[in-house]
Design a protein that fits this description.
The structure holds 2 protein chains of 2 kinds. Chain A has 12 helices and 14 strands. By secondary structure, chain A is an alpha+beta fold. In chain A, strand 8 and strand 9 (158-159) form a beta hairpin. Chain B has 2 domains: 2-75, Ubiquitin-like (UB roll) (Roll); 85-151, DNA polymerase, domain 1, CATH 1.10.150. Chain B is globular. The termini of chain B are far apart. Classes of the chains: A alpha+beta, B alpha+beta. The interface between A and B is medium-sized, with 30 and 32 residues.
């Protein structure tokens, strides 16, 4: 279908984008890569009065090293994220989760910031961002603020980014040398996760010294499996990992839908956590 | 809104409504009907074109977003009478049945081989995961891509 008519503005700075959103009011919508927004516009599930195209804002694109962290501009495409030597070296979990998003065409247009701000519970990068202790810079009419991952994801398709705000960048502490794996259970025809597990571990002497686990699509927001993370410390074989993974569904509140019921999603959370950690740890 | 887009080597200036999808502008605005609308849901990839050298689904991009950019459609691949090697490979390997998915398959293949000149079979299948063939003729499509890699000097592993 053809989208409902809307006004279109194309700011070249974050300040201009914020001003456009303020002027546009509640019905203004940010367009980043458009790979989630365009289908919704075509189906007329959204009818914004004005679309603020942020794809020409240079200051929100690119990947840079800042001390112990990697900072990724919100407008950086999935393809650029997964191909980045910096990301592959220091945040291999993010590279792997991003490589599993949709397909090449969509990864060429879709952006990391767009996917995070869209906050689809079945999206792959929110769980990776949660596991990687990401923090988010958000710009609004009152200036800029920083929000941690636990406060960023608020509810289904809802983040801390307000209607008159723009996500500027994502800061992720380096996990250099950590093993990583993103284990996703999905229909072959579509890349959305029925359940996904983002796992990254630091090994020491053949045993897990530290672990970070994020779960996709078992709650309105990505879930950190903190009890599993604690139980994994010292694990040195598949049996110990499987035992630690038994608590992966604790604190989850999955929905039931045509793909899987809630109980099955919790079962998947335990099974896929064990697999993801084994692969991340090389055990 | 006024846009200026280079398509298949020619610069087109046009006034478009912001809601116009790139694929609709290509077909109805400037007559590039080689690019087809398939599913209209971002799934099938039949409308794939190269936007500044990278494959995109032109049903999922606004024409205004292409302003100032370079687009290559299936109609811009051959040079004169000479076919692009990917087109030749699809013909030689019979990489099409009804042909509807072919423009998108060919454009995705061009993008895939530009990034990975010697893809394995698994890499070919993964590289084309954004393109659906409802005739399910994937086997010959994969063979076509491997042959195109060979024609272009990369070869398939």
């Amino acid at each position: 279908m053809i989208p409902v008519a809307f006004d279109y503005v194309r700011p070249t700075s974050v300040d201009e984008a914020v001003a456009a959103l303020v002027a546009g009011g509640e019905d203004a919508k940010v367009l980043a890569g458009g790979q989630s927004l365009m289908p919704v516009l075509r189906l007329r599930m959204a009818a914004p009065s004005v679309v603020v195209d942020c794809s020409r804002i240079d200051e929100i694109r690119g990947i840079r090293e800042e001390g112990d962290a990697i900072v990724i501009g919100a407008g950086t495409t999935h393809h650029a994220v997964m191909s980045s030597a910096l990301v592959q070296q220091h945040l291999s979990l993010l590279a792997k989760a991003t490589a599993s998003v949709a397909d090449p065409q969509i990864r060429h247009r879709g952006t990391l910031g767009g996917a995070l701000a869209h906050a689809d519970p079945a999206g792959d990068q929110p769980a990776a961002a949660a596991a990687l202790d990401a923090s988010f810079t958000i710009a609004g009419p009152g200036g800029r603020r920083t929000v941690g991952a636990s406060d960023f994801f608020v509810d289904y398709f809802t983040t801390a980014v307000g209607p008159d705000e723009v996500l500027v960048d994502v800061r992720l502490p380096k996990r250099t040398g950590w093993g990583a794996h993103y284990e996703k259970f999905n229909r072959t025809a579509q890349a959305w996760a029925i359940v996904g597990v983002a796992a990254t571990v630091r090994m020491d002497g053949g045993r897990i010294a530290e672990a970070r686990i994020g779960l996709t699509n078992v709650a309105p927001t990505p879930v950190r499996a903190r009890s599993v993370e604690a139980a994994l410390v010292g694990a040195g074989d598949a049996a110990a990992i499987a035992a630690a993974a038994q608590s992966a569904a604790d604190g989850t509140s999955p929905t039931s839908d045509q793909h899987a019921d809630a109980e099955y999603r919790q079962h998947l959370a335990r099974v896929l956590t064990a697999r993801a950690v084994q692969k991340a740890a090389g055990l | 809104m006024r846009i200026s887009v280079s398509v298949d080597g020619t610069v087109y200036e046009d006034d478009v409504e912001p809601r116009t999808l790139l694929v609709h502008w290509l077909r109805q605005g400037i007559g590039k009907v080689g690019t087809v609308v398939g599913c209209d849901t971002s799934n099938c990839g039949a409308c794939t074109v190269l936007l500044d050298g990278r494959s995109v689904k032109s049903c999922s991009v606004l024409a205004v977003q292409a302003d100032g950019s370079t687009v290559t459609t299936i109609q811009g691949l051959s040079t004169g009478e000479e076919w692009h090697p990917v087109q030749t490979a699809f013909k030689e390997c019979h990489g099409l049945q009804c042909g509807y998915c072919t423009p998108g398959m060919v454009m995705s293949t061009v993008d895939l081989l530009s990034e990975n000149p010697s893809p394995s079979e698994a890499e070919i299948r993964e590289g084309l995961e954004g393109n659906l063939c409802r005739c399910t003729g994937y086997h010959n499509i994969v063979k076509s891509v491997a042959y195109a890699a060979e024609l272009m000097g990369g070869g398939s592993r």
